[in-house]
Write a structure and sequence with these properties.
Blueprint: E1 34-35, E2 53-54, H1 63-71, H2 73-81, E3 86-92, E4 95-98, H3 110-127, H4 133-144, H5 152-161, H6 171-177, H7 185-195, E5 201-206, E6 212-216, H8 219-224, H9 228-239, E7 249-254, H10 265-276, H11 305-308, E8 326-329, H12 332-335, H13 349-352, E9 370-372, E10 382-383, E11 414-418, H14 430-435, H15 437-445, E12 455-461, E13 469-475, H16 476-483, E14 484-488, H17 500-505
Parallel strand pairs: 1-2, 7-9, 9-10, 11-14
Antiparallel strand pairs: 3-4, 3-8, 5-6, 5-7, 12-13
Length: 506
């Protein structure tokens, strides 16, 4: 299978707030994926010319199932715009219904509607992409409220040459850069220098002509952290095809795979508000206290469930959640936001793990230009394309090839192997081990969870090929055996040597 071609590029320099002119040229039109007919069913990802082919799952549905899927779209569209991005669905004996939504047919499985909505959104996104540099410039100005940066024409040539499918969809990158536009250019230059003093980072110094120098910013990064050298080498390799287009610049990266910049919500709003206003409006508030504690709650809006909710919000019982209802993710970005889904704060290891002055990485509440491999909605790190960090010389594309025997040989089970935490040297507390998403999944898969003996409602197709479902009650351990192949691997230390669950999963 041909490799996917993607581009995520962030340029950061002291002149990033400047508005510069650039030459215009007319590159070849952007090749777009073919859309196969609804009656076609070959499950291909790429054609002979390595062109991405979109294959519609709806092509396998009957007309009655498609009609049923369309009937759910109003409810799903409403859920997509909701703060938490979730669709509540109540299975009952014999049928199921969308919570709070009247429906003539209360038996349609939500997955059909999600497929229909996903296909519609995909096609709409493809159709609206810019085909020329001029269109891309206008779309950039429309979205960002400013002229494109220097080098935008070189970026467009690179994107079209590599058949980037969504050349306009860089909002997450630009939104992470937005607060910096409220800082004066000399302040940005100062913070670029300051970023190089942050432990557990490295800086790539790009010279004119494309030569790059690797600078380690502390001894821990250079000599101790096991993956830092591989991380830096892969980053340079990723940038190699366009290093000669960057000019002179210094850019600092975290050696870790998790984010660590957490700004107070009010400060972030102040900076973003200035950046969205008149070009050249800068903040006069330049002295930020750098607090080395991840304050997730104060990183959320004042009216968000995380800051206004009751204690029940933090044990997974969100306001408005109907009894006996299940929920489907409709909008992934909203569903992963701990401000609107605060149960994440007590169910995901990133938020469960203490982040303080003594942890690695150490959190920062002062805005600094540092690029990280990941970020949440409450982090202020600048995202950069994740590069292969698999040990043993393998890339992410290599993993699983030995298990890929073609579609007929695939297992219907969810397969996962991994450690309970990223750092095996840090002892795991009982509360973290019990609530972390990794260990909860492993416990459920191996029949050690409190939910293993519970009865769970399972929606299965009725067989009528009209989208309807039948609700069955099945024990959790039986479902786990059927659908999960999950194990914890590696070594870890239990903070409490008597922690039964921690020791059992070893």
């Amino acid at each position: 299978m041909a490799p996917r071609k993607m581009l995520l590029l962030v340029l950061l320099s002291s002149g990033m707030t400047s508005l510069l002119l650039f030459s215009f040229f007319q590159p070849p039109p952007l090749p777009l994926p073919e859309f196969m007919s609804m009656n076609a069913s070959p499950w291909l990802e790429f054609g002979p010319d390595e062109q991405c082919l979109f294959v519609s799952p709806l092509s396998e549905l009957t007309s009655a199932e498609r009609q049923a899927a369309e009937s759910l779209l109003p409810s799903i569209d409403s859920a997509f715009e909701s703060p938490n991005g979730l669709l509540s669905f109540r299975p009952t004996a014999g049928n199921a219904s969308v919570v709070g939504e009247p429906s003539a047919d209360k038996t349609v499985h939500p997955v059909l509607g999600l497929l229909a909505q996903g296909e519609r959104r995909w096609k709409n996104m493809i159709d609206k992409q810019s085909r020329t540099l001029g269109e891309a410039v206008e779309e950039y100005k429309k979205r960002m409220g400013r002229q494109p940066p220097k080098g935008f024409d070189h970026w467009w040539a690179f994107a079209t040459a590599n058949q980037v499918l969504f050349p306009d969809e860089y909002d997450p990158i630009m939104n992470s850069l937005l607060p910096f536009y409220a800082l004066p250019p000399d302040e940005i230059a100062q913070r670029v220098t300051e970023a190089e003093s942050i432990p557990e980072t490295f800086t790539l110094i790009v010279k004119e002509g494309g030569k790059v120098v690797l600078q380690w910013n502390d001894q821990y990064s250079r000599d101790i952290w096991w993956n830092a050298r591989t991380r830096a080498d892969h980053q340079i390799n990723l940038m190699e095809p366009f290093l000669d287009k960057l000019g002179e610049m210094r850019v600092t990266f975290s050696i870790h795979d998790q984010p660590f910049m957490v700004l107070p919500y009010e400060r972030r709003q102040e900076l973003e508000g200035l950046a969205k206003g008149r070009v050249g409006s800068y903040t006069s508030h330049l002295i930020d206290e750098d607090i080395h504690t991840a304050d997730w709650i104060n990183a959320c809006p004042p009216d968000s469930p995380a800051r206004t909710g009751t204690e029940a919000l933090f044990i997974g019982e969100e306001n408005g959640k109907e009894k006996d209802s299940v929920r489907f993710v409709v909008n992934h970005e909203s569903a992963m936001n701990p401000c609107s889904n605060p149960s994440l704060l007590q169910s995901h290891i990133h938020f469960l793990t203490p982040q303080t002055e003594s942890t690695k990485p150490k959190p920062h509440s002062r805005l600094l230009p540092i690029l990280s491999l990941s970020r949440t909605e409450v982090n202020a790190d600048i995202p950069v394309a994740p590069v292969g960090i698999v040990s043993g010389g393998l890339t992410r594309q290599d993993v699983g090839k030995e298990m890929d025997g073609g579609w007929p040989a695939q297992s219907p089970k969810l397969y996962w192997r991994g450690a309970p935490t990223a750092n095996p040297k840090v002892p795991i507390s009982p509360s973290i081990f019990a609530n972390s998403h990794r260990t909860r999944l492993a416990s459920l898969a191996q029949g050690n969870s409190s939910r293993s003996e519970e009865e769970h409602m399972l929606m299965v197709p009725s067989g009528a090929r009209d989208g309807s479902v039948e609700v069955q009650s099945i024990k959790g351990d039986i479902l786990a055996q059927k659908f999960l192949d999950v194990q914890l691997q590696g070594s870890w230390t239990c903070e409490d040597e008597n922690d039964e669950q921690c020791n059992k999963l070893k």
